[in-house]
Amino acid sequence: MVNQKIGLQMWSVKEASERDFFGTLEEVAKIGYDGVEFAGYYDVQAPDLKAKLEELNLEVAGSHIPLERLLSDLDAVIKYEKTLGNRHIVCPYADFKSEAEWVELAHKFERIAEKVVEAGMTFSYHNHAHEFRTIKDEYILDFLLKKAPHVSLELDTYWAEFAGASAPEYMKKYKNRMPLIHLKDRLGDESTEIGSGNLDIQSFIHAARENGTEWLIIEQEAFQKFEPLESVKMGFLSLEGMVAK
């Protein structure tokens, strides 16, 4: 059975990271996270960041790289990520209006994925809610992944459920093609701390375990009551207890 690790998407604490990137990583390590998924590097060079992560005993769960950079500077991206020790490159967002544009994206994704896989890493796409619109009676997300077979999926369970899909049922479609998932809880129409909302997070963990998913990554986007670092600490402690069950 796969060992499920808990990571933090650093976008959750982006303001703190902008003020003090290394200090924020230190706080994340103190909380107990196994690793972090990056959403920018604040001009830090890969060898320096790798040394800091080793000092803190934090693994690299993955990194979100904007589509524009993947298309314009993929060789430099791969070089940085390999130096860092990252195994998972993720495109965090894309949205188009027409079927032709999604087809074009799939072709671009497949070219990116082939090069990333050749370098010994995975290339994944991270969804929001809009990919659960349909093209020819199938979800855009399925349409995209069918046309780009070398692309893996980082399923954002919150956005899948937000769009009306069952995250556990959807996970079954992509067994062994989903090394990472995103977790956040839901209160009303906003994300909240894991364990403080109404989503069945335990079922997501179980489905991910059945799928061979290695990383459970907390990403919180809204903060109603607590500061981001306090929120992601609460989320970690709650998720840690769920994973142990």
UniProtKB/TrEMBL annotation:
Xylose isomerase-like TIM barrel domain residues: 25-224
Stored InterPro entries: IolE/XylAMocC-like, Xyl_isomerase-like_sf, Xyl_isomerase-like_TIM-brl
Pfam family, one: AP_endonuc_2
Signal peptide: none
Gene3D superfamilies in alphabetical order: Divalent-metal-dependent TIM barrel enzymes
Coiled coil start-end: none
Descriptive protein name: Xylose isomerase-like TIM barrel domain-containing protein
